[in-house]
Amino acid sequence: MDTDDLPRVLELQGASNVRDIGGWPTANGRRVRFGRVFRAAALSKLTEADAAVLGETGVGIVCDLRGEAERASAPSRLAGVTTHALSIEPSLGASLRDIAARREATGEDVMVLMRGAYTAYALDWSHRYRAMFELLLEPQAPPLLFHCTAGKDRTGFGAALILMALGVEREAVQADYLATNRLWRGDATLKAMLPPQVAEVLMRVQPDFLDTAFAAVDAKFDSFDAYLREALGVDAGARARLQHLLLD
Questions:
Q1: Integer angstrom CA distances of residue 45 from 68, 86, 186
Q2: Residue 104's pLDDT band (boundaries 50, 70, 90)?
Q3: Measured between alpha carbons, how far is 178 from 210 in angstroms, rounded to an integer?
Q4: With 0-12 CB in 10 A as exposed, 13-18 as middle and 19+ as buried, what is 159?
Q5: What is the structure's pLDDT at 1?
Q6: Domain parsing of the chain, residue ranges
Q7: According to DSSP H, which parts of the chain are helical?
Q8: 81, 148, 161, 213: which is the annotated catalytic residue?
Q9: Which residue has the higher pLDDT, 157 or 69?
Q10: What is each CA distance from 132 to 6, 86, 135, 147, in whole angstroms?
Q11: In this predicted structure, which of 47-61, 100-114, 119-133, 156-170 has the lowest mean pLDDT?
Q12: Span 8-246: which CATH code?
């Protein structure tokens, strides 16, 4: 199946990395339905025109994966939706500041931190993704959008979970994940504060991060199916309903 035109991006002035997760092919030849699930970076700088574009998608549910302080400092500007605060608190703060303050800081130092963060997303914060799946499974629910601050890590892992639950093959899941590297406009203020070798890792997503998360899943649950069932509450019946709802 041709995937050259994926992901389908919503070009907004006040937010980047905003896209429909539809279109990706499954192993059995179906495709994820467009217009049902969207992923994004923070929605705190939306313009009126941006809000109108998002309004045209029909999005009615927003899952905000940012931590409490992140939400308080940058409230969403998308009105007319039901927002669920599914806080996944950032865990890199103090450690990252310590690394950034050291002249000898390396990209590998940040890789180690990010691997730890992704392991935590998979194992320590699975209840937040479980809540998101519960919302996706509600019958006759409006389209759903989920986001964090950059739309790359907490959101990237969440998108990977949804796509894999739908039967999308790992190569396509990885392609959606890595699209962040060309779609996210980045944080210029943060980048300027960091040593270049640190910023190069932190301002991008890496295949290794996602691989680390799924390795942690396999180590604890033996299989992704078991993780879906035991950690995310998506048993065979729920998975079939999800596929009915979100696949063409």
A1: 18, 20, 14
A2: low
A3: 10
A4: buried
A5: 60
A6: 8-246
A7: 48-56, 68-73, 93-100, 107-123, 126-136, 154-165, 170-178, 180-183, 188-193, 196-202, 207-221, 224-230, 236-246
A8: 148
A9: 157
A10: 23, 8, 5, 11
A11: 100-114
A12: 3.90.190.10
Distance CA 248, CA 242 (A): 12
Residue 89: closest CA among 9, 148, 30, 160: 148
- For range 2-11, the mean pLDDT: 92
Asked whether 57 and 75 are in contact (CB, 8 A), the reply is no
Mean pLDDT across the stretch 15-40? 97
Cβ contacts of residue 236 below 8 Å, gap of 6+? Answer: 229
Q: What is the pLDDT of residues 183-210, one digit of tens each?
A: 999 877 777 777 788 888 888 999 999 9
The order of strands in the sheet holding 144-147 is 8-9, 19-20, 37-40, 144-147, 61-64, 82-85
List 64's β-bridge partners, or say none: 85, 147
What whole-number distance in Å separates Cα of residue 207 and Cα of residue 231? 23
Query: Cα angle at 227 between 118 and 38, to 5 degrees?
Result: 60
pLDDT at 42 > cutoff 80: yes
pLDDT band (50, 70, 90) for residue 4 = confident
Strand-pairing partners, residue 38, are 20, 145
Q: Which residue has the tokens 């929605």?
A: 43
Distance CA 73, CA 166 (A): 35
**DSSP-assigned beta bridge partners for residue 145:** 38, 62
Does 63 participate in catalysis according to the annotation?
A: no
